[in-house]
Amino acid sequence: MTNHDSAVTVRDLRKSYGSLNALDGVSFDIGRGETFALLGPNGAGKSTAIEILEGYRDRTSGEVTVLGTDPGRGGLAWKAQLGIVLQSTGESGNVTVREQLTHFAGLYPNPRDVDEVIAAVGLEAKQKTLIRKLSGGQRRRVDVALGIVGNPALLFLDEPTTGFDPESRRQFWELILSLKNEGTTILLTTHYLDEAAHLGDRAGIIAGGKLIDIGPIDTIGGADARVPLVRWVDRGVAREQRTTEPATLVAALVRENGGELDGLEVVRPSLEDIYLELVAAYERGASTSSATVGGSATVLEKETAK
Ligand SMILES: Nc1ncnc2c1ncn2[C@@H]1O[C@H](COP(=O)(O)OP(=O)(O)O)[C@@H](O)[C@H]1O
Ligand SMILES: [Mg+2]
């Protein structure tokens, strides 16, 4: 099966390490130009999946195409279209930032301008510094720079901003959004759900080697998981109610109360709230029975509909 609109197709992907099923039948597509966030707790199988797509790991079974090619058989021309930022590399070489990037740029047929890449990752002031003398966050920027210097059609980012300070993270987001605007397809894993929400078009949530939800970021968890929550304090007692009509509820409460409400808040669950519910529901299901994906989604709906 080939879908020319897809940069990546994954069908029933499985990977076993001995008796451990690290990937237990995962299927998804990534469209060309799309940013797809693969989310899940530590050990869920994210890096295993990414590294199979990159051609770094063999799969046990399943069908995979990346830019139309089986990654197990991808040659140099295929590899040159990929940009790869592994979860842990931490370039530690005895060369400067500029030397390393210039060297790598020379390996690609259509590289980006090295100065532009250095500026894009905010390493202008450090370009003549030996990589081993950089801080962890600065080395991570070198990893990202090496990932984009080849002008990739498809960029893999495995926890790219772990260890960044908030300001660097925002700068990195700008960079990723500009690559996205240029049409780069991006597969991102991150533990920062705000990062996934800011950068991603769609997300897949993986737990225990299974995909437990997938869809556009603003539909993950289903509509019921997104129903706003009105909170207020009534004579010293904290109250909360979920409602699709929060303004109507607040107006009624104000009328009843004859004025302003103490501690009034109207909150919409964030991607992080929804993600935590989904993973917790999956883990409850996994520990009591061999619950299915549908089973854990049902649990979530019941809880959020209260
Ligand atoms: N080379 C390996 N040999 C044995 N087990 C591995 C290997 N790589 C990963 N695993 C196991 O596979 C599971 C998934 O790991 P990984 O893909 O790194 O998860 P994630 O990136 O989501 O944290 C974990 O239980 C991990 O311990
Ligand atoms: Mg990982």
From TrEMBL:
What would you give as a GO molecular function for this chain, any one? ATP hydrolysis activity
Q: How does it sit in the membrane?
A: Peripheral membrane protein
The answer to whether UniProt assigns keyword ATP-binding to this entry is yes
Task: List, alphabetically, the PANTHER family matched.
Answer: ABC TRANSPORTER ATP-BINDING PROTEIN (PTHR42711:SF17)
Q: Which InterPro entries match?
A: AAA+_ATPase, ABC_transporter-like_ATP-bd, ABC_transporter-like_CS, ABC_transporter_ATP-binding, P-loop_NTPase
The upper taxonomy is: Bacteria, Bacillati, Actinomycetota, Actinomycetes, Micrococcales
Protein's UniProt name: ABC transporter
What domain of life?
Bacteria
Which compartment or compartments is the protein found in? Cell membrane
Q: GO terms for biological process?
A: response to antibiotic
Q: Where is the ABC transporter domain?
A: 8-233
According to the UniProt record, one GO cellular component term is: plasma membrane
Which of UniProt's keywords are assigned here?
A: Antibiotic resistance, ATP-binding, Nucleotide-binding, Transport
